[in-house]
What we know:
- By secondary structure, this protein is an alpha/beta fold.
- The protein is built from seven helices and nine strands, in the order E-H-H-E-E-E-H-E-H-E-E-H-E-E-H-H.
- It has helices at 11-17, 20-27, 64-75, 96-103, 141-152, 200-218, 230-240; strands at 2-7, 32-37, 50-51, 61-62, 83-93, 107-112, 128-131, 185-186, 189-190.
- The strands form three sheets. The chain has a five-stranded parallel sheet, sandwiched between helices. A two-stranded antiparallel sheet has the order 3-4.
- Helix 4 (96-103) crosses helix 5 and helix 6 packs across helix 7 (230-240).
- The radius of gyration is 23 Å and the shape is elongated.
Amino acid sequence: MRIDIISVLPEMLTATLDASILGRAQARGIIDVAVHDLRDWTTDRHRTTDDYPFGGGPGMVMKPEPVYRALDAISDLHPDTPMVVVMSPQGRPLDQALVHDLAAQSRLILLCGRYEGFDERILDRADLEVSIGDYVLTGGELPALVLVDAVARLQEGALGCTDSATDESFAEGLLEYPQYTRPAVFEDKQVPEVLLSGDHARIAAWRRRESVRRTAERRPDLLVHAHLTDEEREFARRIAEGETTHGD
């Protein structure tokens, strides 16, 4: 998978992209990430990428000319046709379903905004606008890193354990079950007995039930679209209404 990122602050991106799973995935050729400085496509001596908004108002707006030139040039760097994604608080919320859709693309170009946003004509070049949440950041670099991380871990071979990507929060529309490691007893807190039993069927059943429980307690909104049995849905209802305890 090829990912190009366009930013006026490329130095914000490179350290994270070279570290941990993202760095290893690139070293193995699983993903190919290139960071581009938008200022390379400006034509004035000040390398200007923004200007005052027509109609007045605070802040500055990103100019369309360098963005168009950058998109044209970067699109030609790889034979696959890219999906152009603009990181924007007005975009489609990034959830696991969208992550799977983006991970299936052979190529993405991510455009990071700054200042008060984009000249609207820039959005004409976008295939998709994506938001990572209902809050405002100083730019699109951090959201772009979030998207790259989420998409990269779904690429075959990116994770050390092949089950990791499917055994996590949101993978099945539920939050992940509680996890424990050694020691079995810590400050009088005992690891649940079932996890020490060696009975894989019991462990799987416990984990599934705890995923439903945790989702009902913390993110009941997710249950609307989760794939639950009738028994699990009734269990979730009882939790939401306070009819169960952790011993049930």
